[in-house]
Write a structure and sequence with these properties.
By secondary structure, the chain is α/β, with parallel strands linked by helices. Helix content is 49%, strand content 16%. The longest helix has 19 residues, at 51-69. The chain binds D-glutamic acid.
Length: 270
């Protein structure tokens, strides 16, 4: 593998700020990697849109990233897009495409002791049945509960991650999972780790929260190792951020959410 190929960025995308949780995890695990992140903030939320529309958006963004940034890998840092479009995206491009569903689910299944687990995600992700199919294939004996959490993403996009309103909403939406006495809960939307404190307080100390963001970063690492594509022994990577919405707002809130690596934000207009 030539250094040039290793230098090509990892491209990641989400409907907005949520995929930054995956970016954070990838930067922490693989600080030398170059990354380009696309947040489709002009068209968020994806979770309440039809599957065909989300699949079209995912294909458009993938084409744009390939054309403009020549990445060595695409990370679909959005559960909703991965749930409805991962197979199509894999068929569309000739570089590896990593989704967030399988890594998170595999970890969830490893943490359970009582064989009762849950997953929370957008309406689109839950309705797609993608997690339910994976869970029934991987662990048919495990009681797997799903709950859609409409409204969570909007709180994060407004930067309201610890308000009383989000806590009240969480108490209502998570009540069935608390009652089901699950011992592991997968945050099946990349926005949700920003609400982890509230979710943890509502679920209680006996429930292990699993973030698909962290698990996906490990999957990225393993895939790069396997294909000998890792950028090693080099300087810290360059991290670029692109938004289809208000770039000043993306820079302000994005920096709060991700950290100092998020400086400038480039604009993309559809
Ligand atoms: N962060 C996304 C996900 O993981 C999408 C949220 C949305 O736009 O509704 O599902």
């Amino acid at each position: 593998m030539t250094q040039d190929r290793c230098d090509r960025p990892i491209a990641m995308f989400d409907s907005g700020f949520g995929g930054l949780t995956v970016t954070r995890a990838v930067i922490d695990l693989l600080p030398e990697e170059n990354i380009v992140y696309f947040g489709d903030t002009a068209r968020y939320p994806y979770g309440s849109k039809g599957h065909d529309e989300v699949a079209t958006f995912a294909a458009q963004i993938t084409d744009l990233l390939i054309e403009k940034y020549d990445p060595k890998m695409i990370v679909v840092a959005c559960n909703t897009a991965a749930a409805v479009a991962l197979d199509d995206l894999e068929a569309r491009v000739d570089i590896p495409v990593i989704g967030v569903l399988r890594p998170g689910l595999e970890s969830l299944l490893k943490v359970t002791v009582n064989s009762r687990v849950g997953m929370i995600g957008t309406v689109g992700t839950v309705a797609s049945g993608a997690y339910q199919r994976l869970a029934s294939q991987a662990a048919p004996a495990v009681d797997f509960r799903c709950a859609a959490c409409p409204g969570f993403v909007e709180f994060v996009e407004r930067g309201e991650t610890g308000s009383d309103q989000v806590r009240v909403l969480a108490q209502r939406l998570l009540a069935p999972l608390v009652e089901a006495k699950i011992d592991g809960l997968l945050l099946g939307c990349t926005h949700y780790p920003f609400l982890a404190r509230t979710i943890a307080e509502v679920m209680g100390r006996d429930v292990v929260l699993v973030s698909s963001a962290d698990e996906t970063a490990f999957e990225v690492w393993r895939a790069l190792e396997a294909s000998d594509d890792r950028r090693v022994g080099a300087t810290r990577g360059v991290h670029r951020f692109v938004s289809s919405g208000d770039v000043l707002e993306f820079a302000r809130l994005g920096r709060d959410l991700l950290g100092p690596e998020l400086n400038d934000v480039e604009c993309h207009t559809w």
